[in-house]
Amino acid sequence: xxxxxxxxxxxxxxxxxxxxxxxxxxxxxxxxxxxxxxxxxxxxxxxxxxxxxxxxxxxxxxxxxxxxxxxxxxxxxxxxxxxxxxxxxxxxxxxxxxxxxxxxxxxxxxxxxxxxxxxxxxxxxxxxxxxxxxxxxxxxxxxxxxxxxxxxxxxxxxxxxxxxxxxxxxxxxxxxxxxxxxxxxxxxxxxxxxxxxxxxxxxxxxxxxxxxxxxxxxxxxxxxxxxxxxxxxxxxxxxxxxxxxxxxxxxxxxxxxxxxxxxxxxxxxxxxxxxxxxxxxxxxxxxxxxxxxxxxxxxxxxxxxxxxxxxxxxxxxxxxxxxxxxxxxxxxxxxxxxxxxxxxxxxxxxxxxxxxxxxxxxxxxxxxxxxxxxxxxxxxxxxxxxxxxxxxxxxxxxxxxxxxxxxxxxxxxxxxxxxxxxxxxxxxxxxxxxxxxxxxxxxxxxxxxxxx
Length: 452
What we know:
Elements: H1 9-13, H2 38-49, E1 57-61, H3 83-101, E2 109-115, H4 119-122, H5 125-138, E3 140-141, E4 148-152, H6 160-168, E5 173-179, H7 187-196, E6 201-208, H8 215-226, E7 232-237, H9 258-274, E8 278-281, E9 284-286, H10 291-298, E10 302-304, E11 307-309, E12 315-319, E13 324-327, E14 330-334, H11 338-346, E15 352-357, H12 360-375, E16 377-379, H13 380-387, H14 391-394, H15 396-407, E17 411-413, E18 417-420, H16 428-433, H17 446-450
């Protein structure tokens, strides 16, 4: 009889395509409502400012859709550098910073600035400098070296001179994505160039699962990258990336079948562990001395719309078209259409067009998502005390679903805790989805998929 602690590719293939969000925020933006506007946004900020110990801030700058990279395609993303568009977009971002910065108390430290994929391709280093200067004028941004500045670059169109300019601006975390069929692109070489430019923390996302991509190519690409020992590696199935990259609707005929992708995932997981990486959760692997690993060990790893972060819970302030803000128990999103966003800025108004105020059930479930995805464990007594509920009664149906995952060795259940196993971290989004009250029950026949 096979041990329940060993997951075969065949078993994993039955799980990995169960519909589940990546839960960068919960509820997801699909649950935002249009009657959330400026009044609710201002109320959320006022409440956050009034906290006895206000949360620190993260600033995020979004890029226009036409500049965001597209993955799971036959060819690399084209370079996007339109000087006229760049100048107009930057000017409006600066005006939006002014409109928003005045709402936050000046004693709230900014501990992280993040630039959307595509933004550093659109804006020149001089323009990025103007953006950072404006942020420092309107927010309490800590000095260079005391806060994180993260940027996602285009692996195909970034030179060493750009990297040196980014380092001069204070950018200290670089990430980029690569696919095995990008001919002429060497992830290891770019990692080395980042380090030569003085940027030590580098993340490489290896995107896999494209139909015409040979599995050996993916593993070979991963081996090449591991030779350079980047700080972080993402092993990312292109079927599960809508919240991170602009991915067109990917019909089943253009992506590899579930069994092939399961074999790649298991092989890549083994390779990364052998190379000394820790599986943080989801599809992220880090070296033991990375700040994310230290945050997880210290119990303050946090997940928001930007993914995993080491700074604990922060208020996330988004700028740009479609940007999402997370302020306390409220989410807000700017206008998602570029022309509408531009017109709102030009009228001197704040750009929030939709969002959501979380109710008590949302708050409890969001906390569960955080515990599952960041810590890999839910301590039931502490959770019950914090949210004033009886876990076994409140989540009776959800626990019944978890039992099926426990039979596969993905979670361990007891009266004291829910613990995600090392194998379970490969499918942690599916485990978290058991607690998502908004997903379609008809679309996720968990029991049927896990038979066999």
